[in-house]
Specification:
It comes from Streptomyces thermoviolaceus subsp. thermoviolaceus. This is Secreted protein. Keywords: Signal. The structure is a single chain. The protein is of the alpha+beta class and about 190 residues long. It has two helices and ten strands, in the order H-E-E-E-E-H-E-E-E-E-E-E. A hairpin with a 3-residue loop joins strand 2 and strand 3. The longest helix is centred in the first third of the chain and has 28 residues. It is globular. The termini are far apart.
Length: about 190
């Protein structure tokens, strides 16, 4: 009788555990509606493997284009002011050239703290000429830049989604100049 009770108890626990896991997995599914933006991209992840989101298939006219060396082109598709006090600049780094292009290491900037975390867009700045201020890429508590990292080489025709986060200029500032080492500068309109 004791053995039968122990087996029944183990079975009930296993059944409850299985039901809990099934409910947990169903609750995590969310129907594929991930509202958070991609926070980190790399050249290795650009090759795919994941299904495109509903926004990826839509073509947006860029707000600005910055031309770089060897056919590299940064197309800015949005500059969104967030309630947290920062501006997120999203875009596409594209190789418009006929051969592969090495992403210039100068794009990371020259700060030791940022460089030690690998090649990135850490050298980017937003310039508010009206307010007379320059805003540098934000960093996390470990000194990593809040931008796309792991940039190395882009093959001819390859496009890589990228982002950069900066402290937000005052609400009255709606246009800033985006600067990236080795690239031309461009005026970008901030939304939000």
């Amino acid at each position: 009788m004791i053995m039968w009770t122990a087996k029944a108890r183990r079975g009930a626990v296993a059944l409850a555990l299985a039901a809990g896991l099934a409910l947990g997995a169903a609750g995590c599914g969310g129907g594929g509606e991930n509202k958070r933006p991609e926070t980190q991209g790399s050249a290795s992840s650009a090759g795919g493997g994941s299904e495109p989101s509903t926004q990826e298939g839509k073509s947006q006219a860029p707000l600005a284009e910055l031309r770089g060396p060897d056919g590299l082109l940064l197309q800015v598709v949005s500059a969104q002011r967030d309630s947290g006090g920062f501006v997120t600049v999203n875009g596409n780094l594209k190789n418009d050239g006929a051969k592969s292009a090495v992403v210039p290491s100068q794009m990371s900037g020259d700060e030791t703290e940022i460089i030690k975390h690998g090649q990135s867009l850490g050298g980017a700045t937003l310039v508010d000429s009206k307010g007379g201020k320059r805003y540098y890429v934000l960093r996390d508590t470990d000194g990593r830049p809040l931008t796309t990292v792991g940039l190395t080489t882009l093959e001819a025709g390859q496009t890589l989604p990228v982002f950069m986060q900066f402290p937000a200029p005052p609400e009255s500032t709606t246009e800033v100049t985006l600067q990236l080492p080795t690239f031309s500068s461009a005026t970008v309109k901030i939304s939000g």
